[in-house]
Specification:
This protein has a domain of about 40 residues. The chain has two helices and two strands, in the order H-E-E-H. Strand 1 and strand 2 form a beta hairpin. It is extended and about 35 Å long.
């Protein structure tokens, strides 16, 4: 699971790769909305990052 660089704590999300679309669809159907450790899970397919959505890099390069 991804961790925060500063605190070392888990960031609260993970990526899972599956070989078959049918496996992905079944996992999403079974797990989306399920409860884990008292919190609801949100399970969906990852979307590619949008170009130009670089937050911290914008601030560093813009002089702020």
């Amino acid at each position: 699971m991804p961790t925060d660089r500063e605190t070392g704590r888990m960031r609260g999300f993970a990526f899972v790769e599956m070989m078959e679309d049918a496996q992905e669809d079944a996992a999403i159907e079974q797990l989306d909305g399920a409860e884990w450790m008292g919190r609801p899970l949100r399970v969906n397919k990852a979307k590619p990052k949008e170009e130009g959505n670089r937050g911290a890099d914008f601030n560093r390069n813009s002089g702020y």
